[in-house]
Structure formats: C-alpha cells, structure tokens
Design goal:
102 residues, alpha/beta, 4-stranded mixed β-sheet, 3-stranded antiparallel β-sheet, 2 helices, globular
Length: 102
C-alpha cells in the first residue's frame, strides 16, 4: 500500500538531498517529507494490520530528482520516505525492485 503525495516543481531546478533534507534548488522542501510521513503513520495506525506494509512516496512532477530516487527521513516515520520523479517507467521499475526487498 502506498501513501503518495504529488508535487509539481519546476524542471529548471533539481530536487536533491542536502544535509539529509530534501531541497528543490536552494529551497528547503523537507516539510513535504514530514507531511507524507505523518499521513503514512496515520494510515498505518488506522489499518491496525501489522502485516500490511505502507510506503510513503513523494512524487515530483517536472524537477529532476538526483540519482532518480531519494531516500529521505522524517521523525514522523520509522522508515524511508522515497522521493521519485514522475516518470511512469521509472516508478514501475523502482516499485518492482522494492517489492523484491520485502
């Protein structure tokens, strides 16, 4: 199961990690990571199904994501919050690879 937050950020600036925080160009956008982490934690609690894995994703439209995917962290979620660029082929490939890890 996924909690997906979608953002449209301009293609002229990259999305990247700086000191563990998500940035769009020079602008700190890590608040978006905390928001999707909070929503994911709420859903996980509401489901009350420990065998169901919930994945928090921040999908960016436009802005290139450094390395194709970022592994961001938030105190609101124990695991990673993944940041991906909206490119359907890349997302499907990443999801298939991620499922193998579980």
């Amino acid at each position: 199961m996924f909690v997906l937050n979608s953002k449209r950020w301009h293609a002229r600036l990259p999305t990247h990690l700086r000191d563990g925080r998500v940035h769009f160009g020079d602008e700190d956008r890590h608040g978006q990571i905390d928001a999707v982490a909070r929503s994911t934690a709420r859903l996980q609690d509401a489901l009350a199904m420990p065998d169901v894995v919930v994945w928090p994703l921040l999908v960016v439209h436009g802005s290139p994501v450094a390395g194709g995917v970022l592994d961001a962290r938030s105190p609101r979620w124990a695991g990673p919050v993944y940041v991906l660029r909206l490119a359907l082929k890349l997302i499907v490939k990443w999801l298939k690879m991620s499922m193998v890890r579980w």
